[in-house]
Amino acid sequence: MTETSDIRKIHIAFDGQDTPPLKIHQLFDPKKYDQLIGITGEITADFINKYLSKFISVNIALSSESTNRLSADEMITKVALTNALLSSANKEAAKIFSALTSDNQTNVLNSLFRISIAPTQVIHSKFYLLSNSITHDTRVILGSVDLTDASFDAQRNQFEEVLVFDNNIRLYQNLADHFKKDLKPVLRPFFTTNLVKAAQKQIEESKKDQANNKQESTGPVILDNETTDKIAETDMVDLIKHDVQHDIDHELIPDMITKSMRNVTMDRSQTKEKIAKQVKQHDTIYTLQKEAVSPRAAKPKLKTREKITKQVQDALISGMSPQQRDAEKKYTTFLYDRPMERNIANNNSGLYVPNDTGTHPIPFGKIATISEIRDGLKSIDAVMKGYQQFVVDYDANYGKRFFEAILYSFTAPFLWEIRAKSSLNPEDGNDVPNFLVLGATAGSGKSTLLRIINQLTWNSDRSLIDFGTIYPSQTPQKKTKTVEVMEHYMKLGSSYPVLMDEIEPYFFQQDQYSRHLVVDIMNELVNHPQPIAPLIGTTNYDSGFTMLRETARRTYYLQIDKVIDESQKGAANQYIYNVRKTLNNTLFKDFVMRMANLLEDDETPWRDFNSTTGRLDFLAMTRQLFKNYYEMANMPLPDYFSETICDDFKESSRNRWAKLYLTQQDDFQYRQGDKSLLFDISKLNTFNGFTADSIEKYRNALPIELCVDGINGKRGKFVEIKAPEFFRWIGEHNPYEETETDSTENEQENNVIEEKPKKKGFWARLFG
């Protein structure tokens, strides 16, 4: 058995040859080299004082810790800038400077010793370049070590690599040029101008006292808390206002980084939850370690395997209540999208499902015959004819909503790939929503449509999850836990949509729920493309559906507000029952093969914008595939086939405010000077016949661009609306246009009248 002492934790190799353990001063040899340039993850004052004091020149940049799955803008805002601001707030530079010897403090003040940071760039490099200005000897040190004693501690139980190359001129020059040309422009002093001025001021005052009291020498600079507080405050302001602006002006970072800075807290709730979960997990693991050892033995030893197995089992379920475990079991539909495994030539769509016994994944998808395609289209048509026959006031435009939901469900497993291919900028990803909401009145057939979608894609109608029964009604914090489970379902790795029935309206209307799930998940998808399952859900329309603006932008909303004829309900139920017995997912299996082919083709045009609305049609390729289906089946394109996405939330919002204006005109007060309408939104209360949540419904439904002073115009008791734009939006005549025109004409007439009584001069009277 190998003894622990025989294992080399610090592995040093000179030019590829293993070397016996070396002391730090032998690696960073101040006798052989007098200059040091490098990048390190960490540096301590103690290391500088002990090993770098005798170098004539030291220039060190501080790198950042490893980051995981962050976008370019997040690397700036959430890593580089955040670390720089935290460093200033925690006074790290002042602490290191105060701990330096007085000689090394002088070296810093004379710019002989320089430490730098990159406030808007993430540096993950690590290397050290030593040179001699007289002999021109060079040394390159590569590896994992930092400039700390701990990095070189063989008893630390951490492996470190140190690769040394002496007098390798090409390697040295390459890295030296890289430091000078690439890194130096983005670096800023770690010991800032504010810190240097404070230190110099203290030294000058010390010299005065020295002269007056005839002291032999001045001591080291030790900055008090009041001084370092002021330094931290000023440094943080300089970082944001000066350093960020400098890097924008010099095109080192994009000028739109300010937008990313403004949105840096968008998904903060999700990050907090991850941190809290990690803390809980660590506590569980610490407890597991503790309990795996016999507590009373004089010489602690591990317990038996059986006891440890029981403790591990208990630990794995300790964080879940019985209700949580039951909720997790409700989701059973798995469809995995693996583009790297896609092989169209071998009929592999890249989608996989578990086999019947759940032991391993098998490919999903199969090209259908023309006859099977025709049968699939006829099944969908039979569904649509059911709505056409039994829904009151049905028309082709209304039918498009049902067909759009089917198209979305077919596309759902690939939405994350389409989002990545159609986005030029990260924020464009919000145009490919991961949420489809069917807003419907009771008796409209919305739940039936959800089951039909399940059958057409999964060949089953049992994958639906009832929102209200995920947890029992008396569960503490039921709303929060329900949203957490929804997120859990979406992040199980499957790309098959989560089918959620009867989502309660509070989820969309209250910020802490919809922002947490819809906004945060979309931000995660935009910045880190990955197969997070889409959510297709129904919700009660009732007196009107509304959701927060941020939620609405990231959601595809289809309004199904017409009911099935009550007098024909029995016939309708029988009809749809007969139709559903014929449904299968053969067409969907063919569809995924054809969509996979489009995704593999670099020429596929994913950025299809509607000329009227200007919105991205993220279902454009799906529409094209279905057009091909109808052509192959020699069937006409049905009237419920939509040529572009619907915009029902915007339409329902417009309709809501149009009705409000037409029925409450006297409550809209016109301000002629601002050409605006003032409306007291507090009147939308139960006393006046509105529902308890009407104020927020109407506030959410009003577009910000119609409000005077933007978002401020829709806050508070009085909503102020731009009159001309508002009347164009609701499609009603602006009665104040005539008044303004008449006023202008009257003013012109008055001016003419006023000019008549002017007295004529002598020559005018004489000659007319």
TrEMBL record:
- Record key words, sorted: ATP-binding, Nucleotide-binding
GO terms (molecular function) for this protein are: ATP binding
ATP-binding: present as a keyword of the record? yes
Q: What is this protein called?
A: ATP-binding protein
What InterPro entries is this protein classified in? P-loop_NTPase
- State the source organism's domain of life: Bacteria
Does the keyword section mention ATP-binding?
A: yes
